[in-house]
Amino acid sequence: MKTFVQYGAGNIGRGFIGQLFSEAGYWVRFIDVDEEIINSLNNEKRYLINIVDNLSNTEVWVENVDCINASDTDSVAEAIANCDLMATAVGVNVLPHIVPNIVAGFRKRVEGANNNPLNIIICENLIDADKLLYKLISEHLGSDEKRIFDEQVGLVEASVGRMVPVMTEAQKRDNPLRVYVESYCDLPVDQCAFKGDIPEMDHLIPFTPFAFYIERKLFIHNMGHAMTAYLGHLLGYKYIWQAIDNPYIHSIVRSAMSESASALSKKFTVSSKVSMNI
């Protein structure tokens, strides 16, 4: 079985990326610092996600998983050295702290003569996250190592659009591994950043120019949420889901998103159907 290393077992790591690659046939090996999460994943080898909307709540088991403590640097390096694919979802501020383990894994990979390309999908909420991670990693590499890194490692930007609702304390106590998510689960990635073959799997969307998906998230996805919140606040709603159920707000927001989609479609020569598929 192919192995996928997911650095970060939080809401996005478990609730989105882990599910995606588990269902694609990978063994998903998380790396995290939360002892409860680590022990639970290693004991259960699976976890629950709840896919929810206003009308339904569907439980889905994510199978074939385990977890390594990030402080166990040797085990982390071994996992990175031998995996088929990798991703991060740790938060921008944490990225500098995981770089030494990534570098150790890369060196172990080279020492073990694993010449297969390693692609790291960067699921962080930051434009040019690939450039930041490359800068942080290259500071630890010598000139020969940097040449090999450039040849064999792809730093792949991603656009994370799946929403993860805030869980209540009661929901957290019920099962420490459970994550509530929306049904949308597409993961656009920068097609040109991959080294070697790009995995063919459901919901992974390689695309170029990737700037389209960066701007799409900002000017359609995020704008739609912001406009719903602003209009909802004016009319006294507490939550976005309440506001968007108002037909007038829904019409205004939908029209604004469509207008933005038309502009992006013209800018990037992409169909408006792709622009609005969120």
Q: Structural class, from helix and strand content? A: alpha/beta
CATH level-3 fold name of the largest domain: Rossmann fold
Q: What percentage of amino acids are in beta strands?
A: 15-25%
What order do the helices and strands follow? EHEHEEEHEHEHHEHEEEHHHH
Which regions are unreliable across 5 or more consecutive residues at pLDDT < 50?
none
According to DSSP, the number of beta strands is 11
Number of discrete helical segments: 11
Distance between the termini: 32 Å
Q: From the 3D coordinates, which CATH architecture of the largest domain would you assign?
A: 3-Layer(aba) Sandwich
CATH superfamily of the largest domain: NAD(P)-binding Rossmann-like Domain
Q: How would you characterize the largest beta sheet?
A: 6 strands, parallel
